[in-house]
Amino acid sequence: MLFAVLFTIAIIIGLLRREQVKAVGLLSALASLTLIVEAFNGINVTYSIFGLEFTFMTDTLSRFFCILVGISGFAVSIYTTEYMEPRHLNLAAYPAFILSMALIVISRDFLGFIIFWELMTIASYILIVTYYDSPETKRASLIYLVAMHAFNTAPLLLAIGAIYSNFETLSFSALQGAYVPTWVIWAFLIGFMSKAGIFPIHFWLPEAHPVAPSNVSALLSGTMLKMAIYGMIRVIELFPGSEAIARTMVVLAVLTIAVGAIMALVQKDIKRLMAYSSVDNMGYLFLALGAYIMLDGTLKKIAFLALLLHAFNHLVFKNLLFMLSGNVLHATGRKDLELRGLGKKMPFTAAMMVVGILSVSGVPPLNGFISKWLIYQATFLSKDPLLVGGGVVSLFASALTLAAYIKIYRTLVPTTCEVV
Questions:
Q1: CB-based burial, 236-248: b 16+ in 10 Å, e otherwise
Q2: Which among 313, 339, 314, 331 has a CA at the least distance from the CA of 408?
């Protein structure tokens, strides 16, 4: 696994030479490209460390999510070379964050999964507290740390502990098709929904994004949230009985879509608006996942295709939008929506911002529309009242998203006010 070696070198450089931002960024970009290549070719290795065996292997699902991590890691790392400020441990935490997500999706047992899951949480925490001297950052980081361990790590550990207690193995291959107590699947659902920012445990997300550097926000929203999707799909595919959680999942997803869209509409901070938009989009993903569990035949396949395509599309337009917001913050020192005239001062940023806004709002023919349309198809054609209702809410939420992002568009148009 050459990608892991390259990321490890970047981590060491970040620890020993904290000013080497470009070296860490370029090494992380190269490692991300290497991850994509190795995922395409296939990974199947086993390491023994302190008497514990860790198996890493790609199947169709993990290969897809490796590519997501690799694409996001490459794009954001190139951006990072000119954006990141070296502060305390953040330069080492950055490649560690991307590496942990790659190792999560290729781990073939729950032991490796939870170890790298916790590494991801710790690395993301270090990155969120980059500007640790700000009171806003201190508050957001405390909320994040408590929420992640109380509502995310703790339920996952309980579920994994119960699995080992019952089967004396944590290997995915050995557990395939095993029947676990229903509460174990519920514990997984709570843990993964918490990491994804699903209502009512969404409150950490709009606190963390505004205080994190924009390149970190891009990885948090575009990539880290997808780890929850990967984990939930993996559990559903491993253990029978996921039908027990499907309807609750859909209800919470629909509430998340509504809350995220409405809250985005009333924000006055660009990054906080985008954070609530991420909450909204994670609702779309869990709605598609719930539909996948509940449906059969062609509609089931459409729901799964919609899930994977929207995961990819959300990564693309959210990485783009958060990095563009970083451009604005870097150029103006501001991230409030009272800015005006950015289009004249920053034409490339403005043009790409329009593309991102139209995509996240689901305007045809851009990528956000295609995956949202598939979600509408799966829900509306299901004839299930709950899913149809979810489709209606998600359709209206797209209109609210466009209305919210029009406020960002207004920052681009020229007025008599000058950008300061």
A1: bebbeebeebbee
A2: 339
Closest C-alpha to 94, from 67, 71, 122, 64 = 122
CB count, 10 Å around CB of 37?
11
Token pair belonging to 175: 């557990």
Please name the helix (run of DSSP H) or strand (run of DSSP E) that holds residue 2, with its range, or none: helix 2-16
* 365 preceded by a cis bond (ω within 30 of 0): yes
Q: Please answer whether residues 256 and 280 qualify as being in contact, where contact means their C-beta atoms are separated by less than 8 angstroms.
A: yes
CA end-to-end distance (rounded Å), the chain: 47
Answer yes or no: are the C-beta atoms of 108 and 172 closer than 8 Å: yes
Buried b (16+ CB within 10 A) or exposed e, 42-68: ebeeeeeeeeeebbbbbbeebbbbbbb
Q: At what angle do helices 2-16 and 21-41 cross, to 10 degrees?
A: 170
Measured distance CA(323)–CA(248) in Å, rounded? 34
Best CA proximity match to 107, nearest among 227, 187, 247: 227
Chain centroid to CA 378: how far? 23
Are the CB atoms for 238 and 179 separated by under 8 Å? no
In tens, the pLDDT along 79-135 reads: 999 888 888 888 999 999 999 999 999 999 999 999 999 999 999 999 999 888 888
Q: What is the pLDDT of residues 336-392, one digit of tens each?
A: 788 788 778 888 888 998 999 999 988 888 888 999 999 999 999 999 999 999 999
Coil/strand/helix, residue 318:
helix
Specify the pTM: 0.94
Nearest to 419 by CA among 357, 322, 349, 319: 349
